[in-house]
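In the design runs reported in the main text, the only information available to the sequence generator was the tokenized backbone. The following block is the verbatim input for one such run; it is reproduced so that readers can re-run the procedure and compare outputs position by position.
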């Protein structure tokens, strides 16, 4: 078991150095020892960031579901693979063993085949956090279909954009979903979306809320009877290492969402290896990541990484506040959770409710706590460490992105000494670089700059679906021969990294990545709006919230501004989803612009953050007078 499980700091440095000096030998050893390949690779790595082109384990053949399921059957067939905890605490949890997972994935895969889905076809999955979500993901992978999971909180417009961008042939959904005390009509959202999606000819519907819903003749079918009739045997499609495994959309600072393409072999190796080390996973642990499988965190660290290690992974359908704010801790106690991985926004929301609800439950099973999605502030870090971890469960603050596929900077628990608000050290094989504005790399410690990565790692996204140029522009053109992350970071005196936040027009709200451009597009659809600009400002619980500056058209009619505010948020909900609603809306007569017509967001951001002491030189603006007007009316 060389290199697979790191146990102390010296070993980390030793393995890290090897992974940098001889990356190909290092990853080859990991890949060889811990996975099931149908055919070994001809070449470990070939890469060229200027094209960009990156290939890992070229020539190798495999199926990721054989690694996540089949190979565990002889040793762990009866072990729980997926532990499903329903929204309603009175509904029993479901323990799906590796044997049962095998049967359910195979049956589902045969249903997909019977509907004409083949290797390379795109299948959109729009499901709540119920077992069918993980199973349909794996069923696609079993037959080589490319899954595109869309988070079930997105609106019908957001869904149809994503379906059309990658030409999905099929949508898998449910009659509805439970979220706390609410039920949501998911199928209705799919029906609306599909009015604009001519390429979809099949919709498979899981039953979750037992509702009566319209089913479109010839297009929609209930899943259950199809699964009941399907064979339990579906041989895994043999995939090449670089065949696409999935597409997952993420927001950019401009334009439509980017369909990040992840491929098979490298993604499997990296997510499995990081899972094992970052969570120090041991055979009988019960691991729980509270993310939704609609995000990359769920893909890599609910489904693929844990299952590739034969782990038990908890899937929670509900929300942290239902039936009360003690739900997370109740689940930890009930299932004896050993690793708990969540987002700072959830920690802040729970901290606000006080410690009584934490202390009510026995959390002594916990060994490792994780944080992901946005910088964790010092206060939240201490609350988590003191009250949940009782000061003996290390917090792994894991920095990574949809594009990176797996965790990039993180402590290794019991190995790396932690430091509040620091993601600490690069993971094995990761070569970060901090760059200054002029494009020079900042060497040494105690420096701050833009975070890049100098060398490929196995799970880097290979392209943007149908738009390789945009992939190159976004990630590989800011700095020569480097992957640019879009984040700023500093390196302290011992080489620990602290992520300081986005340096582009992406805003992280409650851990969700939102681009300003699509939100502004949605606002501008309102008939009374002539122009808008959206920026972020700090928020106690969400990390950032959205502030919109909006110019209304002069129609001569008088309008109730509160109505317009509500309608604008309604518009955003319809186009993107409720997560992108504006917290503050300021109507204004103008927006500060440069002489070339570009909105000066820097100024708007400062005003939204109530930081107007240093707005910089505004005299060169096209319309410097609007700045004072905006300050005077700021919310
Ligand atoms: C952006 C990526 C990776 C899974 C969830 C988000 C921010 C993520 C951290 C962290 C500080 C973080 C970055 C990054 N981010 N984790 N531990 N500390 N910032 O994936 O939606 O692709 O967002 O989230 O700004 O660029 P994503």
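Verbatim output:
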């Amino acid at each position: 078991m060389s290199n697979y499980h790191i146990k102390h700091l010296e070993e980390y440095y030793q393995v890290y150095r090897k992974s940098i000096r001889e990356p190909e030998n290092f990853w080859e050893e990991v890949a060889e020892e811990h996975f099931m390949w149908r055919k070994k690779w001809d070449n470990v790595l070939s890469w060229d960031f200027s094209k960009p082109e990156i290939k890992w384990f070229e020539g190798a053949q495999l199926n990721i579901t054989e690694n996540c399921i089949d190979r565990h059957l002889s040793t762990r067939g009866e072990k729980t693979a997926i532990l499903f905890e329903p929204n309603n605490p009175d509904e029993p949890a479901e323990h799906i063993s590796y044997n049962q997972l095998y049967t359910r994935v195979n049956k589902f895969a045969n249903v997909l085949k019977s509907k004409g889905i083949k290797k390379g076809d795109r299948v959109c999955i729009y499901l709540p956090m119920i077992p069918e979500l993980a199973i349909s993901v794996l069923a696609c992978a079993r037959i080589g279909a490319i899954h595109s999971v869309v988070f079930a909180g997105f609106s019908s417009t957001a869904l149809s954009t994503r379906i059309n961008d990658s030409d999905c042939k099929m949508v898998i959904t449910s009659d509805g979903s439970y979220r706390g005390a609410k039920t949501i009509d998911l199928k209705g959202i799919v029906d609306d979306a599909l009015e604009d999606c001519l390429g979809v000819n099949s919709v498979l519907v899981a039953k979750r809320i037992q509702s009566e819903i319209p089913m479109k003749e010839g297009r929609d079918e209930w899943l259950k009877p199809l699964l009941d009739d399907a064979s339990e045997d579906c041989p895994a499609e043999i995939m090449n290492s670089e065949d696409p495994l999935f597409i997952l959309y993420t927001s950019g600072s401009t334009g439509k969402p980017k369909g990040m393409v992840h491929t098979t072999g490298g993604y499997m190796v990296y997510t499995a290896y990081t899972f094992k080390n970052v969570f120090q996973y041991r055979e009988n642990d019960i691991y729980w990541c509270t993310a939704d499988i609609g995000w990359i965190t769920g893909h890599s660290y609910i489904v693929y990484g844990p299952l590739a290690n034969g782990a038990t992974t908890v899937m929670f359908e509900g929300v942290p506040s239902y039936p009360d704010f003690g739900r997370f801790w109740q689940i930890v106690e009930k299932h004896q959770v050993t690793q708990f991985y969540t987002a700072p926004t959830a920690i802040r929301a729970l901290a606000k409710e006080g410690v009584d609800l934490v202390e009510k439950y026995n959390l002594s099973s916990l060994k490792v706590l994780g944080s992901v999605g946005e910088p964790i502030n010092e206060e939240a870090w201490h609350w988590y460490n003191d009250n949940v971890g009782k000061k003996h469960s290390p917090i792994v603050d894991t920095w990574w992105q949809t594009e990176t596929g797996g965790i990039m900077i993180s402590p290794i628990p019991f190995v790396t000494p932690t430091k509040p608000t620091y993601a600490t050290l690069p993971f094995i094989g990761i070569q970060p670089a901090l760059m200054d504005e002029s494009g020079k790399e900042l060497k040494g410690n105690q420096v701050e700059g833009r975070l890049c990565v100098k060398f490929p790692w196995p799970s880097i996204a290979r392209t943007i679906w149908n738009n390789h140029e945009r992939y190159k522009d976004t990630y590989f053109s800011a700095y020569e021969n480097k992957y640019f992350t879009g984040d700023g970071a500093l390196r302290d005196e011992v080489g620990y990294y602290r992520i300081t936040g986005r340096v582009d027009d992406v805003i992280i709200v409650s851990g969700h990545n939102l681009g300003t451009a699509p939100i502004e597009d949605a606002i501008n659809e309102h008939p009374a709006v002539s122009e808008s600009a959206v920026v972020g400002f700090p928020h106690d619980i969400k990390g950032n919230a959205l502030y919109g500056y909006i110019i209304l058209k002069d129609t001569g009619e008088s309008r109730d501004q509160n109505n317009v505010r509500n309608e604008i948020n309604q518009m955003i909900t319809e186009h993107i989803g409720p997560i992108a609603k504006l917290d503050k809306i300021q109507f204004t007569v103008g927006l500060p612009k440069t002489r070339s017509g570009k909105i000066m967001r820097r100024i708007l951001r400062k005003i939204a953050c109530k930081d107007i002491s240093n707005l910089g030189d505004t005299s060169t603006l096209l319309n410097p007078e609007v700045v004072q007007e905006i300050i005077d009316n700021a919310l």
